[in-house]
Amino acid sequence: MIRPGPRNLITDVTGLRVGNAQDATIKTGTTVLVGDAPFTAAVHVMGGAPGTRETDLLAPDKTVQQADALVLSGGSAFGLDAASGVADALRAQGRGFAVGDQTVPIVPGAILFDLINGGDKTWPENPYKRLGAEALANAADSFSLGSHGAGTGALIAGLKGGLGSASATLNGITVGALVAVNALGRVTVGDTPHFWAAPFEMAGEFGGLGPAPTFDPQAVPPVKGGDSRNTTIAIVATDAALTQAQATRMAIAAHDGMARAIYPSHTPMDGDLVFAAATGAARAEADPLMLGHLSALCLARAIARGVHSATAAPGDLLPTYSDVFG
Q1: Using CA atoms, how far apart are residues 259 and 190, in angstroms rounded to an integer?
Q2: For residue 98, what is the DSSP state?
Q3: How high is the pLDDT of residue 17?
């Protein structure tokens, strides 16, 4: 039977930790997933407007098969510098890919657009390198959801977005998801409090309201007005031992969870992306089909949890889920 892990977080995958850092004045932040040891990493992009760092080397035919950390950040192109802060800190720890007498930390990253969200963006110096280093320093087994880390300044259709996570276990294998939800589309059905991800909810983790009783697609405007630059960026992880090609398939399958939870997803204006991470800590052998299913399940739930957990802050342009629905 599929069950959430003990924390219902991606850190239920043994050997992974997550750290958040945010700046309330700018209304932005960074989230870092780091392994106790390098982990197999892969990526798949389905959105039309991605912003990424070091994702080409995650292809199965490339020399480097493992990463030391993965970074999700706000800040649009400026936010890519968060990975530099993480890489510098890991290098100081002696972490990285050995090249002669040097170590080069492998830190792929992805960003979302939160530059027009009510925060003060008149910084004199790019803040994201600092935020990346702070997020890494904060990495732990437990971390906050909602308006934290990369979800700090996230917006979706009519509501604040947020940082979400969820996990699932089956037959000795654990899968988890981590996501910063900043989608063009909706995560709730029209003007109702029901989440698109409701059929996949476990233990009332985002309110327990169940699916919307009715749905008329003609009556549900699919996207928000105003600025249309967005992105939902995610990581799915497992303790199964996977090759980079197998991890890529897991990332591809996880996109189904995004499509189940966001209406619509993968638009030309979103940079929707999923990283995959595999630590190999589990003794059990994983079924690739079930890994894909669990990844999609966890990602759909994590998306709803991120929006459900968002909290209000001064200067917000949009209300939180709890502001609107209680």
Answers
A1: 16
A2: E
A3: 98
The two three-digit tokens of residue 49, written as one number = 């407007």
Instruction: Please state the pTM of the whole predicted model.
Output: 0.96
Name beta bridge partners: 233: 180, 273
Helix, coil or strand: residue 143: coil
Place of tokens 């929707």: 272
Domain extents for the chain?
10-318
C-beta of residue 86 within 8 angstroms of C-beta of residue 104: no
Cα radius of gyration rounded to whole Å, the chain: 18
Environment class of 226 (CB within 10 Å of its CB; exposed 0-12, middle 13-18, buried 19+): exposed
Q: Which residue type does 155 have?
A: L
pLDDT in tens, 17-26: 999 999 999 9
Type of residue numbered 185: G
**Region label for 172, one of left (φ > 0), alpha (ψ between -120 and 50) or beta (otherwise):** left
DSSP 9: S
7 CB neighbour count, 10 Å cutoff:
15
**Minimal CA–CA distance to 103: which of 56, 59, 68?**
68
Q: What is the pLDDT of residues 120-175, one digit of tens each?
A: 999 999 999 999 999 999 999 999 999 999 999 999 989 999 999 999 999 999 99
Q: For the domain with range 10-318, which CATH number is right: 3.40.50.2300, 3.30.565.10, 3.60.70.12, 3.30.2010.10?
A: 3.60.70.12
